[in-house]
Amino acid sequence: MSTIFASSDLVGKNVGGWKVVRQLYNNDITTRYALFFYVEKGGENAIMKVIDNEKCNTGDKKEGLTRNELMSCETTAFGYEAKIAKTCAGQHMGNVIRYIESGETELNGYPIPTVTYIVYEQSEGKISDFLTFSSKASFVADLKMLIDKLKSLHQVAKGVRQLHTHFIAHHNITPHNIEVLESNGKFKLSGLQTSRSQQPDLQSPEHYRLYNGDLTFAPPEAFFAYKIPDEMVAYYQIDTYMLGNMIVYYLTGLNMTTLLNHHLHYSLKEMASHGDDYLTVLPEISNAFNMVLENLKSCVRIDELRQPIIELIECLCNPDPDRRGYPGNFNTSEANSDLQRVITRLDVLYNKAQLMLAKNNLK
Known about the structure:
It is built from 10 helices and 11 strands. By secondary structure, the protein is an alpha+beta fold. Helix 5 packs antiparallel against helix 9, helix 6 packs across helix 8 and helix 9 packs antiparallel against helix 10. The chain is globular. The mean pLDDT is 90.
């Protein structure tokens, strides 16, 4: 036995009827107290997420928490994720990773035998493993690359709206949480542990925090704990920003938050630490935002698609949550955060790019 923790020694073992095949590498900061494994049972392949008991007991602690408190927090958060993932599966959300089962078991022979787990459908990897950002490709290669990205973004947007339709905000839409399920391109959202729900029986254990995702991808207002009065709309607007953030990431390999920091005198985190009020610094952030948009134009190398893509980023990533969202929603009964028009727009751009490719092939 190389460890006293059963959760750290699962390869080759049977957990809840699943054979653990191999461990997966995890570099997502929001799941640093979890382990991931490829598992199989009865011919079905899946991914198992497990609480990392060893890291909870011996690794870096969360600020202000004892070991026992950290373990309790992680167990509670794990239970919440399993519950909300099961709810999503029950609503047949086609672009949210499918929950299979969850449970807790003990393995003989370990002083700390507990293994707490959630099983999800298997993916081929994260979107970051598949994206390319070539800057010297041909027109056709650039167009094909953009078609693939628009297809993925369209499905990601559908996944976000499926969650919103059931009063759930994702709050951690990052490359780590976009799964590629099929070689021909099926994309789903994962990473529900940081989500927020308006359903009374699905309250997040950290519901008191405006944002609990990866700060690298966070909207500007999250650094200042600023939110508009309607709490759930404020949560949806965070997702709206993060969706736009993914468009930026798909184009550049960076994200809007990182690019904003590059154009500010102080980073968003530093500005917030100075005690600045968000509405006071918003003009400076908006000015940086406009500079980022101008620079992004060169990253869309298909002339006919450049302006509509930049306009999408502009409306989705607007630093002012009150002005964030698709422009057409502002004059209708739809909430600014309703993503249906964004989904439609991405579909139109995808089809236009497909048509451009077909016409080019006829030349």
